[in-house]
Design a protein that fits this description.
300 residues; alpha+beta; six-stranded antiparallel β-sheet; four-stranded antiparallel β-sheet; 30% helix
Length: 300
């Protein structure tokens, strides 16, 4: 509206000057108000620009301490500024070597033209971030990491915004002073990374990452097979359960022929979201009711 107001005010000044009509003061006031709006707009744009960029080195790592819009965080940026349980609109980006509360660990885009609704956008953002950040369950700080997502609103969607920022917030008592990618524990495996002859003391139901131990140390669980599932559309949980049971039973007969048999068999297979992301692995486990100190599987 500023250009319109400016044009009208100039026109009024010219007309008042030629005809000697009243309204010159109002026209001047209109010009002053328009100029004020222009100045305010410029100041606003400068302020907004300062919230979208931070000082970075040649490799893109944050070097200073700057306020910025949460949605402008880049993958690998560390930050402070959480207050309560909601994702803040503004955070303070800091180098990851300094104490910090959280890290932007992944980004993804939600496809589609029509806005699918608040609940559906949040659901897709949650699922997408879960898959992109699952490797960080192998962090030694995993028990103290809480996932958050920053996703498009209805209004930003209409402007073309489709980007989701995946965040992890650290809630432990120690100071987090390193990128999460540098805190991974080599003894932890995601379920689909488990390989034949991997041994575990127990299965952790609270985590998708399981701690493996040398099979000469006390343990009760050992992986006896791993195989690829047939490609194609997701067959459903019941169908996968039946097919992996058959697949593991078949391999069990071959692996444990003439050897000590486990007391319990179990299978692992992908969820629908994991299947659609490309996981096609089944894992077969044998479990003993007693603690073992040598491999359950017979020698190769």
């Amino acid at each position: 509206m500023v250009p319109v107001a400016t044009g009208l005010a100039i026109g009024a000044l010219v007309r008042a000057g030629r005809r000697g009509e009243r309204g010159r003061g109002l026209a001047v006031g209109g010009l002053v108000a328009s100029a004020a709006w222009v100045v305010a707009g410029v100041v606003g744009l400068v302020a907004l620009g300062s919230l979208l960029v931070v000082d970075r080195d040649g490799s893109g790592r944050v070097t200073g301490e700057d306020k910025m819009v949460t949605g402008a965080l880049q993958v690998g940026d560390c930050f402070n500024g959480f207050q309560g349980e909601n994702v803040p609109r503004l955070v303070t980006a800091v180098p990851c070597a300094r104490p910090h509360e959280g890290e932007a660990v992944a980004k993804l885009r939600i496809p589609g033209r029509e806005y699918p609704g608040d609940a559906e956008v949040e659901k897709r953002a949650d699922h997408g971030c879960d898959l992109k950040t699952e490797h960080l369950w192998k962090s030694r700080y995993a028990a103290d990491l809480q996932p958050y997502v920053f996703f498009p609103s209805r209004s930003s969607w209409t402007l073309g915004d489709r980007e989701v920022v995946c965040l992890l917030r650290y809630t432990g008592s120690e100071s987090l002073t390193a990128p999460l990618g540098r805190t991974l524990d080599p003894s932890l495996r995601l379920w689909h990374e488990l390989a034949p002859r991997d041994c575990m003391v127990k299965w952790d139901e609270e985590s998708i990452a399981q701690r493996t131990v040398p099979c000469t140390e006390p343990h009760r669980i050992q992986v006896f097979a791993r195989y690829a599932l047939k490609p194609g559309p997701y067959p459903g949980e019941k169908a996968l359960d039946r097919s992996t049971d058959r697949g593991c039973d078949k391999r069990y007969l071959k692996v444990f022929r003439g050897g000590r048999e486990p007391d319990l068999l179990s299978t692992l297979y992908p969820s629908k979201e994991e299947w659609e992301s490309g996981h096609r692995t089944a894992v077969c486990l044998g479990e003993s009711e007693k603690t073992l100190k040598r491999p359950m599987l017979p020698p190769r």
